Fold this protein.
Amino acid sequence: MLMQNMYPFTAIVGQKQMKKAMLVALTNPKTGGLLIGGQKGTAKTTLVRSCRKLIYPQQIIDLPLNATEDILFGSIDIEAAVNEGVRRFNAGLLSRVDNNIMYIDEVNLLQRRLLTTVFDVMELGTNKIERDGISYEHKAEFTIVATMNPEENTLPATLLDRFGMYVDVESEMDLSNRVAIINREMAFEKNSGRFCKKYAGKTVELAAKISNARHLVKLVHISDTMIQLAAQMCAKAFCRGHRAEFYLLETARTLAALDNRSYILPGDMDEAAVFVLVHRTNTPSQEDNEAQNESNQTDNNVDEEQASERTGQQPPADNENSDGDNKDGQACSDDGNAKDENENTNKSDNDDGNQQPNMNSPTADDKITDIDKNSFVPHMKVEKKIDRFNRHGTGKRTITKTDLKQGRYVRAEIPKNDITDIAIDATIRAAAPYQKVRRKNSKCALKIKEEDIRQKVREKRIGSTFLFIVDASGSMGAYERMRAVKGAIFYMLQEAYQKRDRVGMIAFRRQQAEVLLPITRSVDLAQKCLQELPTGGKTPLADGLAKALQILSVQAKKDMDMEPIVILVTDGRANAVEKNDADPIGMAMHMAEQIQQRHIASVVIDTEADFIKLGIARDIADVMGALYYNLDGLKKENIIKIVQNISNL
Amino acid sequence: MKRKAVFPFTAIVGQEDMKLSLILNVINPALGGVLIKGEKGTAKSTAVRALAELLPAMESVHNCRFHCDPNGINYLCDDCAAVIKAHKKLPVESIKMRVVELPVSATEDRVVGTLDIEHAIKHGEKKFEPGILAQANRNILYVDEINLLDDHVVDVLLDAAAMGINTVEREGVSYSHPARFVLVGTMNPEEGDIRPQLLDRFGLSVIVKGEHEPDKRVEVIKRRLAYEQDADIFIAGYSEQQNELAGKIMQARQLLNKITVDNKLLESAARLSIGLGVDGHRVDITVIKTAITIAAFHNKKAVDLDDIKEAARLVLPHRMRRRPFEDSGFDWNKVENLLNDNA
């Protein structure tokens, strides 16, 4: 497509870090590519598009979310095979991207399989193809630039780690900058040609700077001192593996080259650390912590402030979510108690207005408790019990089969059973080499035989669906209980996100239950809801369970594959119902029974902490057929076993 | 086949916000579409389908599969771009803007386009068969019950909506073409919510409710009955109003580029976003763009504070984050205060 007038790089207001990191990535492919994460509407995509002019004749090639394997890796040339009867390689996207930049927008939504293989190819520098009867190998050296909005799902740590650099962008908060952004956008839209011309001079200058730095970067000397510094920095950030040091040095080197120097300054290392270490910083385990304390005493080389600045910008996939981080400090500023020592409030001056205490209108008895992220890590283990007899029973399998036609087409395979979903492209590829022989008595150019037929393999995001029902009544707020509860839920959410599960959240307090979050894959949103969840008031437990049933039945209509798991977190002290004359606990029991009747897998986490235990939560768990855990017991066991009986769905 | 009669847009009773937001998007396709939320039977789909009658004619490249804009050099398909590169002139024709429907059951290959199977089998050649996104270029893409759309279809929709380009790398074809469309979605919130990333792609949003005044409800029934009895007569009865509105839209389209905005109003839009703590800069820009379009629709020369307020009402609600146990995520008083303070 002809895209002459893209919004110019030099016309983007502010966002210094993102621009700098981008220049580094464009200058030196060895810096390992760049991932830009951040809120919507912060010029992420605009920035990447704008680079086209800076690196010409190099190209920016998109890897769209709809990509299938055959076109990414390359495959048999159908036309040559059909018309000439020869097997020839038809280059794919990975061949086109050689010596260029690969751009992946919304990378968090791309199939993980594709992303992993793309990284493998990038690190190897060659693409080896063994498919459709073709064996081929070609050079594929490229830089990956990706953008994402972590609001819906982020990348797992293992994939984040493969990006050399990470930058988190936020909106500009300066008023005059914001006005400048509106003005420029309007001017660009009115007449893009004139707008681009205005910035053409600066663009040419910047392009020259990049090309100069590309030559210079090989000449930048890496001294032993810098290598040592890199090693120290990475050790301090508890980076896994040794990729980090390498990327750190390459990035520092590129920064020096962009500054027209042939030597690295410590300042380059600090700047590089912000890009390279942010998404690699790990929370140290207990032993590591002690080790760190020791090393802190003996080694004063690395500035304390530097280190804290780095940990202040956690990537979204890390244990402490960066978005969550920002808000943690603020949400609890309402009442000032329960501050988490590990929380970093560095960036709270950049906050997005969440501080307004009135917005949330907590009444006097309400309070918002912080998430305790350090207490413990309960792992959720979902076991799927498959009943062999029911499997072949009534109609269940047919549902799954028709459902298989949904989902994204990822690759083709030789059909094993009946053919239901033909992969026509793969079928043609399979048939192509034989056409010269077969064509003799046919009008069609292509004759397909049964053995050519390939079936589509589709991938659908089926994870479990976790519906959290959280008691937010006053009794939960007591004794810092909510902090531990939020901590437990927080970790379950983390786990859910890593497994690409979906989550929903219902909270109940005062007179009613409320759906905080309809079932979604946005764990980020769930965390925000959790963070801001106030406690106080009565315990309408029955209403909470009723809402859960309602949500699940609506969801079941939409998605037959859904395997819901209900997680009820409560102290069981139900004391409010819709109609005043009913018995709150009895109502709750009744609802629990309904959940059991629908064979919904469930877990009850009992948070009762009073000296005299009433044990109602345990009774509810029994009625619901739920697994029962005590919050304190959970701390020791660290695992929640959830048994799902698939045949029951 | 005779074209099916469509209930006239101007005959829809009430629902002013919804009608306005649709009209604004026709005047200025750069607004980013509209999401219409509401219960069943509130004329959501009727309004969108009725909009087709009001759509203006536009210049388009003759015989182009993507109906490229001959004047929009940035967004030409490969074929049209090749013509320009050869320093030839593009043949121009006038076509009507359309409403292209994306059914909820649509598969990904139909949406983005795929390998032309017939051509491959008959001629042994690869050819790209355009999908719904190709049809939607420069048109209105209408998704009824958008909240029920399959996740992977939403993904590709997001991809295309963000860039205005549909890049296809699948099933043996590799192709990209312009896909700049006005996204119009309707949904019933009772049936589940919409993904946040998709939500953000909508420039405007409106909530429709059934009319509560008995008089208006009676009027709704009367008109519907009259339409069902004899659609042709009913439509003829509204032809004058329809023409008037279509004329107003055309006029506003021409006026759009001439509207001025005072710097102070730009500041208040920016202050509004900061004050409300919304993500990113899209809100500021969309508020201003919408205000300009509203001013053009009202045949004004410059944007005033009332236009900004009206724009804010359409742009902000779906971008506010809702908090636990809060009745509404959108506090209109706060918006008014923020805007009045700056005035």
Summary: The mean pLDDT of chain A is 75. Chain A is about 40% helix and 15% strand.
